[in-house]
Amino acid sequence: MNESRNRPPASQESGENRMGKMGGSYGRFAAMIATSTVVMYGLMYLNTSQLDHVYFSQTRMWMALYMGAVMAVIMLAFMMNMYRNSRVNMAILLGNVAVFAAALWLVRSQATVGDVAWMKAIIPHHSIAILTSKRANITDPCVRKLADGIIEAQVREIAEMKALIADLKSKK
Fold first, then answer.
1. Which of 29, 106, 118, 162 is the right S-S partner for 62, CB 3.0 to 4.6 Å?
2. Cα–Cα distance between 163 and 140 in angstroms, integer?
């Protein structure tokens, strides 16, 4: 006997049958959120002026984590009909609220950021100021003078921070 005759039409199948094991679909959801969070972290560096200004930044990592947590909550809310296990959904929601709160606290407090980590976070930040100051369509001479001063200061400070990072690493 053909097994497909015994199955209900796809429109009548439970969410579990349509999507395979529910754990698998939640696993895919988790992989989607994790991948998106990593991609968001990387995207935060696209506006640096030079590739050698890209350093690992705890601050940007915490920011990517809180963005990923918010995205998980929003996506789960929009796809609630696909994810019907209310206990798992509540765990996902509560877990992501906790990740959001912790990551936001870490960003705002900078509790884990020491000397080198701070400089590695500030270099890309300064690099963004260089990029926008160089490429903005500035026509006013006073504003151009200000932008040029920002470029000069940021270039100098990046060089100083790179030297300090090298110095502090050599002392370890």
1. 106
2. 35
**Do 120 and 165 meet the contact criterion of CB atoms below 8 Å apart?**
yes
Residue range 55-76, pLDDT digits in tens: 999 999 999 999 999 999 999 9
Percent of the chain with pLDDT over 90: 82
Distance CA 49, CA 132 (A): 8
Cβ count within 10 A of residue 124: 22
Give me 18's structure tokens.
Answer: 């349509």
Contacts of 156 (CB under 8 A, 6+ apart): none
pLDDT in tens, 131-167: 999 999 999 999 999 999 999 999 999 999 999 999 9
Mean pLDDT (whole number) for 82-97: 95
Tokens of 94: 């509560």
User: Which residues make Cβ contacts (< 8 Å) with residue 34, sequence separation at least 6?
Assistant: 68
Rounded to an integer, what distance in angstroms lies between the CA atom of residue 157 and that of residue 57?
Answer: 17
Q: Which residue has the tokens 């097994």?
A: 3
pLDDT of the residue at 20? 44
Q: Which two tokens stand for residue 96?
A: 């992501």
- Measured CA to CA, the distance from residue 162 to residue 16 in angstroms comes to 54
Share of the chain residues as helix, strand and coil, in percent rounded to the nearest 5: 75, 0, 25
